[in-house]
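Chain A, query sequence.
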Amino acid sequence: MKYAIGDIETTGSNAMHDRITEIAVYLHDGNRIIDEFTSLINPECPIPPFISRLTGISNEMAEDAPRFFEVAKTSVQ
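Chain A, predicted structure.
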């Protein structure tokens, strides 16, 4: 059985206002990881200093990253 494990980092905890800064998806077959996708995401807003310290993701790291809609089309096979 295949299943996906996902993780996201965001600019905060408010789903109405905060944005994604990193996404990771791992496809697992029950024994091992068989595919993966990870990407920083440009949140198109400043990343608060507290969040940068918590996640290790800075504004400088995210500024040249793709925006979410650009990676949302990408799929793990």
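Residues 30 and 43 are 33 Å apart (CA to CA). The longest strand covers residues 20-28.
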